[in-house]
Amino acid sequence: MLKKTHLFAISPLDGRYRGQIKELEIFFSEFALIRYRLKVEIEYLIALGAEKKFTAYLALSTSYQSQMRSLYHDFSADDARRVKEIEATTNHDVKAVEYWLREKLEATRLKKFSPWIHFALTSEDVNNLAYALMWQEALKNVYFPAAKSLYRDLRKLARRYKNTALLALTHGQPATPTTVGKELAVFAHRLNGQLEALQNINLTGKLAGASGSWAAHQISFPEVNWTVFSTRFIKSLGLEPLLLTTQIEPHDNLAASYQALTRINTILIDLCRDNWTYISRGVFQQKKVSGEVGSSTMPHKINPIQFENAEGNLGVANALLNHLVQKLPVSRLQRDLTDSTVLRTQGVPLAHSLLAVKNIRSGLNRLTINKPAIDAELDRHWEVLAEAIQTILRKSGRSDAYEQLKELTRGHAIDKEKIRSFIADLEIPETERLVLLDLLPHNYLGLAPQLVELLK
Hints:
Elements: H1 4-7, H2 18-21, H3 25-28, H4 30-50, H5 62-73, H6 77-90, H7 93-106, H8 123-160, E1 165-170, E2 173-179, H9 180-199, E3 204-205, H10 215-220, H11 226-236, E4 240-241, H12 252-281, E5 284-286, H13 305-327, H14 338-343, H15 347-365, E6 367-369, H16 371-379, H17 386-395, H18 401-409, H19 416-424, H20 430-437, H21 448-451
Helix pairs in contact: 4-5, 4-7, 4-8, 6-7, 8-9, 8-15, 9-12, 12-13, 12-15, 13-15, 17-18
């Protein structure tokens, strides 16, 4: 049930669709952003304490480290509200996290470490790591499991229907038959390939101060190898270090990740449109759901709403992702803040993408094969065997084979009798004639059934 607050939500993600995407809130909400920033601040403080040159200042025992980590592990809604109260005064979101952390340490035996919070950092050092972690962990924990489940659904259907003949349409015109399973296998294969590409993108992180030169770090502790320190710290978070930057991490790999997701979404748009068309053609039927209404005025209808909803959400996602891709790698000189507000939206296109994946899975689950309609469609189009006949004629040495079949079939209604009569009069070896006479639109499938087995 929708809560009252959901009824007044501006975004449908936080209203109508909240129940389907709420697992993303721990990665992309304002609460989540604060918690990820806090994690970076605390892990940085602990990393400083592990640096030999800092032990005189930051003797962080295992117990102290656990106590500090508990601040982000156990971070609560009340804690987040306090951070927002501080931000109302500072008008700076990262500084508010720093002040909150200082407040918490002041009330404990960790008070002596408070001067080292956010030591020599600029806000971007915290933000770029936080945003990269949010995106990386949301993909890993929510999006990839859902998308891989969709892949498995497609693979299962492809194998189930690998032998079910289907009239192909190229340019919207009857063409060499295929199978339902092989066509679904194509989408499964494409999806899996792009999921692997997305998984293989290593997100990068930066920790180099106000202009990317470790100036404050170096002036304070010149004896520390800051590039080595930063490399070790960023890797400890599960990111790849980027050492040559301005104030900001340039977002190139993050943009590559967004772009990879747009490719996945585009493949899924293609899948939605094909399934919509198969439903329209009668290839697929949809299971009835008790109590469901397809049309406000036409009682007979079962609309393909899952595929339509998914296509719409995928389009919205790609529009936002494409803006992120074009905007984030561009920053005036050493820093401007246009990336700040844009990065806050990265969870929105992922939520639309996730919603689409869930709707496609739901839509696929409702599909059943309409075998009589498929067979009837094939029976209406014996002309699709013209390709097979003319290639056998070529094999037998006839250079005018294509032209013969063009004259027979183009613009004419062709049925079984006309095709077989034509075959009977051909001057070809009897073995070849028998092959052609056994040919039906239903069995002219080439390797289509076997190709399904190429799926992993």
